[in-house]
Design brief:
Arc Repressor Mutant, subunit A, four-stranded antiparallel β-sheet, 8 helices, 12 strands, alpha/beta
């Protein structure tokens, strides 16, 4: 599947050159000539990254970035600017940009930065994990089920499965609350700060020998959660 780029640049020749080179790299490029058109396209289509000039007609790039960040915190934004002063870079990054490239720039560097930002924004590949044994309970991530110690098949919710898979994939490492919210709940709003805590409590009930003395599912105060497995 082609990754889609929103390219916002008011200079015709530069816009055409950038678009052509990105398309040669296999990307689909949708172009906008001003800030107003950029926001309209952002609201009407789904993009994997936005390459955004700062000096734009109608609405400048900084304001475009701020508006986008009100609705989407995750999409990578790469600023292009003729201004190289550090103060301008700080303003752009504070507005929510992920990277900043000063004109004139090398096209290979632009493509490299686009590649890096897109790969960084892709969800983690958990597809290789299908079965896992947790304290004698066999979990099947494909069927959202586990078999308890008595041989009875129990069902997991979709969110339980996603969270459990994320923790197992990162076994013996702390996974932050922020990463969990991003990868399991995505753009959804959690109604209570204890939602993730309650999921961890459920996992202890399902998999721990003594839920009051957890061995596998640990909470790390002020940071996040960890699945420990030293087998």
């Amino acid at each position: 599947m082609k990754r889609k780029i929103l390219l916002v640049e008011d200079e015709d020749n530069l816009r055409s050159t950038i678009a052509l080179n990105l398309e040669l790299e296999g990307y689909e490029v949708i172009c906008a000539e001003n800030g107003k058109e950029a926001l309209q396209l952002f609201h009407s289509e789904k993009f994997d990254i936005i390459v955004l000039d700062i000096m734009l007609p109608e609405i400048n790039g900084i304001d475009v970035c701020i508006e986008i960040r009100k609705e989407n915190k995750k999409i990578p934004i790469l600023f292009l600017s003729a201004k190289s002063m550090s103060a301008e870079r700080v303003i752009g990054l504070k507005a929510g940009a992920d990277d900043y490239l000063t004109k004139p720039f090398n096209l290979e560097e632009l493509i490299l930065r686009v590649d890096i930002l897109i790969k960084r924004g892709l969800p983690a590949d958990n597809s290789s994990i299908k079965l896992v044994n947790i304290n004698g309970r066999l979990v099947n991530f494909d069927t959202y089920q586990y078999i308890d110690i008595n041989g009875k098949t129990e069902h997991l919710s979709k969110k339980e499965t996603l969270l459990l898979k994320l923790l197992v994939k990162n076994k013996n490492k702390v996974v932050s609350r922020e990463e969990i919210l991003e990868k399991v709940w995505e753009q959804e709003v959690i109604t209570t700060g204890r939602t993730i805590d309650n999921f961890i409590l459920a996992f202890r009930k399902y998999f721990e020998t003594d839920p009051s003395k957890p061995v596998f599912f640990k909470s790390v105060r002020g940071v996040g959660y960890k699945f420990e497995d030293f087998l």
